[in-house]
User: Fold these one by one.
Assistant:
Number 1:
Amino acid sequence: MISLKLINLYQISIYKLKFHTLIYFTIFSTLNLSCSKDEESLQDDSKVLLESISIKASEIKGSKSLKLTANLLPNNATNKLLRWELSDESIANLSSSGILNPLKYGSVKVVAKSTDGSDIFDERVFDFIPPILVNSIEVDQYEITDGLPIQIFALVLPTDAENKDLVWSISDSSIASIDQTGLLTPLTNGTVQITISSTDNSGIFRTIEVEISGVNTQKRTTLKAENILLWQRNNGGWPKEPHNSFTGYDRRQTPEEIQEAMNKKAFTDTTIDNNHTTGEVRILLEAYKNTNNNDYLVAAIKGVEYLFTAQYANGGWPQYYPLRNNYSRHITFNDNAMYNVMMLMKDIYTTQANTQYFPEAFKETAKNSFYKGIEVIVNTQNLIDGIRTAWCAQHHASTLEPVKARDYELISNSGSESVGVVRVLMSVENPSQNIIEAVKAAVSWFNSVKLLNITTQRITDSSQPTGEDVIVVNSPGDVIWGRFYDLETNQPFFCGRDGVKKSSLSEIDNERRTGYAWYGGWPKNLLNYEFQNWKEKNNIQ
């Protein structure tokens, strides 16, 4: 039999075990609870709540949308997401991202609320204000008595009208033409009605009557300008052939040439090569100044519009437009093609060299065109070991990398074409630092690659296929440059129609040796006079 004392000891032990277990559980639970509260406290402390929301107030005119924004404080708030609410959805709607779209004129209240539990909000009233419309167009009375163009001016009222754009139209385009700046150009004598209309849906317009007299209906002509009209293609440009040298414009065209020109009106062989299109435009402007023959001005306008259209979005011009599937689609500095176009553009926007006869709107277009060209010129300057140098005769229309043209016109730095490129850059008024560095780098490159104490001679040589030859001879004191320089060695090279690069002129075939300008003094005036004058003009060190 188990003794009573043993039973009591067992019960006491069980009791002690239970007591200690209870104490342990209580302490562990307390510690656990304390840790949880501390962690929760740490988490709460790390969450930064919004304290202030301030909607940026604005008014909306017409049907314009507004992206709502708000200033939020503190800047390090953990959750800056807002909930936008609108008081009246019949007047406007509001997207979840805060874009307010008016539906009709009136006022709405917008509320921006926090979403971080801080219950912070701000509200603003937005007024949708009708736009101020045109209520009248004031125009003086005009007449033409000398047969010359006049500029018509219109005053749009009220002066704070939101949209002052106008549309100009004419009752009879056979008597005169009018552009969208109000330039009225007479074609013959008569009377026309000019209507000037608002474009802001106000329905306001004004019509005036202009009497035109003094127009010489017997058109004065020049042979050269008439021939240029004959060879102009329908797209506004001119071909290089048959009058590549322009001398063919100075004589009467044969019946066969007249028929050929008429048959090819729709051809798209139009180009800026060898000064074409730009050259014809300038001749027509001079003829218009001397004869007041409107046919010449109209043709010149078409020529400039062709040049506007032909320019790439990056600012370059191809040699031919419409584009051909060969090297002519590259951006072309060769034979000063882009130089000629860009200097015409500059003359137009600065109203030089008879360009005052062009529509006023041409100025802004030409200026944009010119500066786009400047941008692509700076972007195509070749780098050798990270140093700016010069330009290839042509650059890829997309990548702007230097590219070859004909088999003997390989990738290179051009000692010839780069001169015209630099002159265009130096024509920029108030040049940027980027342009200044481009010019200085190119001049430095010209100085580094000049060839001393040699020149070329053209000699008669019956042993050669062409009956002549071009040779390089010693000439103390002379300075010349190569046409093409290797982009790696910076040394001049020469190439025949086989496309193989040679290090001396004598190594290529006689036909290419005598039929291409491999050496020249192209940069001389640039280095001796123009560069220094440019630095002085622009106060450049």
Number 2:
Amino acid sequence: MQSDGRSDGAQNGAAVLTARLSVFALSIAAAATGFMLFLQFGQADGLDGWDIVRAVLIGLSTFWLAWGAAQGLLGLTTRPVAPEVPQGAIAGRTAILVPVYNEDPVITFARVAAMDQSIAATGTDATIHFAILSDTRNEEIAAREALWFLRLLRDRDAEGRIFYRRREKNTGRKAGNIEDFFTRSGGAYDYAVILDADSLMEGETILEMIRRMEAAPDLGLLQTLPRVIRARSRFGRAMQFSASFFSPIFARGLAMMQGSTGPFWGHNAIVRVRAFAASCGLPELKGKPPFGGHILSHDYVEAALLARAGWTVRLDDDLDGSFEEGPENIVDHAKRDRRWCQGNLQHTRLIAAPGLKFWSRWVFVQGVLAYIAPLFWLAFILASVMAQEFAPPPNYFPEAGWPFPVFPVSESAKAIGLAVGIFGLLLLPKLLIALDAMFTGRARSFGGGLRAFVSTLVELLLSSVIAPVLLMYQTRSVFQVVFGRDGGWPANNRGDGRLSVGEAWVASRWISLNGLAGLSVVYFLAPGLVLWLLPVGLPMILAPLVISWSSQDSRSGLMTVPSEIAPSPVIGLHDACVQSWLGEDETMTEADTGRDGAVPTVHA
């Protein structure tokens, strides 16, 4: 059996190094092949500067596509193996941190109630507390938080176990919120499970994470792979299916490559408080946002700082029972992605920070590439149009005095091979994952092999239609950051994500107009490229329809995920709690909470 990427020692180091070198080699080979094939294609009618520019762009784009594909293929070669962990009593004290920012307290606090009930159902005697850390700026929501917190205490009989505090100033946003807890109260705990407001975790999963921390004294952070739940829209269900069906395989490849220098995604993870407090103090970068100020994508940086201090940072992709919710439409996804874009590009200032491990620096580079790589494709399209307009025509009489024309050798086969290879890098990993799921039986939890395979095809088709729209949002985000526009930290929309065509038009008309203008320019300058660019241009022109249609509830029965076929118990606990609370939301008074007086603050 291959190493699972978690054991210490030379064998683990050799496995991680082999995985990294294999993925790098495959990606570089694919990039070089794409570069050379395009150069040969360009030589058919005389190589010029535009051909070289396009070949370089193809090479860069192919490298990034191959990197993702190789990670998926690596994940298919192994299976997650749970480390051997003693199942005895838990000695350490744990705090579960729930940062909130202008969230609906009924839904959010019901998650806390469900997780507390799930932990209690295990019969554990471990010391596990919850700390609701509010950064809410809206006074009306803050008043409801205080009221519903008292109700939460009454329902769970949680005096001394569940705490709440609201900061006067949300300095440093979420990272500052967590840092404030560690500064004030971290000394009371050995471990901290860091969640998002929409996170939900099984009690057994939380206990297993704590046990794994206690079994590995050098483990500073343990990251789980959250599954998306409760998606209703076509867009949301596609994201949910992808997170449950494809992501575990890609995460397996990621875990193999990262080894002990793993990722932190900011939530659904456990940290060793002593390690985190000593290693992860974040600097405020010089200058103004978007490149200065507080670090937005703090999680990547905190993982790098833990690794720099010698702590192991690990992704355990075998852990189930870890959930989150996702955006229900493209616009909400783009708003969240705008913040991630700014945070990742901000990391350009940290790549050369002293003492970081090589892989941590490469993670920063990958984060930057994730946002600028799509621009390579856009630049390739623009360069192809310019080449048609300004490149010199082929010379059919290269030999002086030779009366017969010399026609270029057709390189159509190479051009077609290049196109097939690029699409193969996009499609092949997901198709192989679907076939693997059918043969291994994993597809049964997704409604069966046939349904899982058809769902894969539908997800690929939907992703292809949505991709040009997301490309435009991402391109705008990159340019906004580069030209100094701070995107801030807008609150997430967790309500009904359905958008009318009119609402979608307001949010995406600039994409439609750019798509129409772009195809018009191509028609006049390079009409031969119009047909090739329709798969990109048409979704852009129809962006309002694509956004509105994909935001509507899905009734197809496809893209089924395990949480729908056999829901995790904690999901049912949350649903029951929400149902019992919702009818009281508008009429709740302090008397209904069963207590009068001040709200208990976070443990100190």
